[in-house]
Design goal:
The complex is a heterodimer. By secondary structure, chain A is mainly alpha-helical. Chain A has 2 domains: about 100 residues, Orthogonal Bundle (Rna Polymerase Sigma Factor, Chain: A); about 70 residues, Arc Repressor Mutant, subunit A (Orthogonal Bundle). Chain A contains 10 helices and no strands. The longest helix of chain A has 21 residues. Chain B is mostly helical. Chain B is about 65% helix and about 0% strand. Chain B is flat, with a radius of gyration of 14 Å. Classes of the chains: A mainly alpha, B mainly alpha.
């Protein structure tokens, strides 16, 4: 794994979605962390997905400045500007001090490549196997949906009401985290 | 709103599905119904959920990554 994700830039510019996927997988956690200051004011997931799509759209015109991770800095700027626009569009009064918001952007610029380490992957996979049937199935269907299918539709596939489906997803995550704790893994600490 | 209702709204917002509109950014309706504290909780739990999804995916892709790639490849 490279510390400079611009190694994927040539492929992404050429329209290679796999190269973009490899970049996304490592860039997404940092980009999400950089939007933490906006969590009360914008739907961070919606902003992040839109920013990543726009990054893909503008990348053919992107010119690297010679410093590492130029594309992630571009994506951060797009996500940041989208968040500010959303706050203004909704005419919400900022609930966060502008200096703190700026500090949030600075924090986001401290980029670290991120992929789950193999031991963590193995521990999570083992804990998934231990889930009770309904939470396990709900989690499986959520993963199969790949973020492209509404929960109501996923719930229907399992013959569940949407609320029951969502409760099972919450239970799956809670049980996974408890199982990881018993295995000596604190996921929140790992992600900090 | 009861804690249970807030809990299911949070869980929906934690998911990576978002409505798609090529003209504008579309927040999930459930996000609008959440309290400010619920929105922060949804954000924090989404960080955890994306890490779990990535760990369970053969390519290390979270549901966010899958959703974005799906939109690119479906465009």
């Amino acid at each position: 794994m490279s510390a400079d994700l611009d190694v994927y830039l040539a492929g992404i510019r050429a329209g290679d979605a796999q190269a973009f996927g490899a970049w996304l997988a490592q860039a997404e956690p940092s980009l999400r962390r950089g939007l933490r200051s906006f969590a009360r004011q914008v739907d961070v997931e919606a902003v992040l997905q839109e920013a990543l799509l726009r990054t893909w759209q503008v990348v053919p015109r992107f010119e690297a400045d010679g410093k590492p991770n130029g594309l992630i800095r571009l994506a951060q700027r797009i996500a940041w500007n989208l968040s500010v626009s959303e706050v203004r569009r909704a005419k919400r009064h900022p609930t966060t001090d502008p200096e703190l918001l700026e500090a949030g952007l600075d924090e986001a610029q401290r980029y670290e490549p991120h992929l789950p380490d193999p031991l963590l992957r193995e521990a999570i996979a083992q804990c998934r196997e231990k889930l009770p049937p309904q939470p396990q199935r709900a989690l499986e269907v959520r993963l199969e949906g790949e973020g492209g299918v509404p929960d109501a539709t996923l719930a229907e596939r399992l013959g569940m009401r949407k609320n029951t489906f969502l409760q099972n997803i919450a239970r799956a995550r809670k049980l996974l985290l408890e199982c990881l704790e018993r295995a000596g893994v604190n996921l929140q600490t790992e992600l900090a | 709103m009861s804690d249970a209702d807030e809990g299911t709204l949070i869980e929906e917002v934690v998911g990576a599905f978002r409505p798609r509109d090529p003209r504008s950014l579309v927040p999930l309706p459930a996000w609008h119904d959440l309290s400010p504290v619920g929105r922060e909780q949804a954000y924090e739990q989404s960080v955890t959920m994306r890490a779990i999804e990535a760990a369970l995916d053969p390519n290390g892709y979270s549901a966010t990554v899958r959703a974005v790639l799906g939109r690119i490849q479906g465009a």
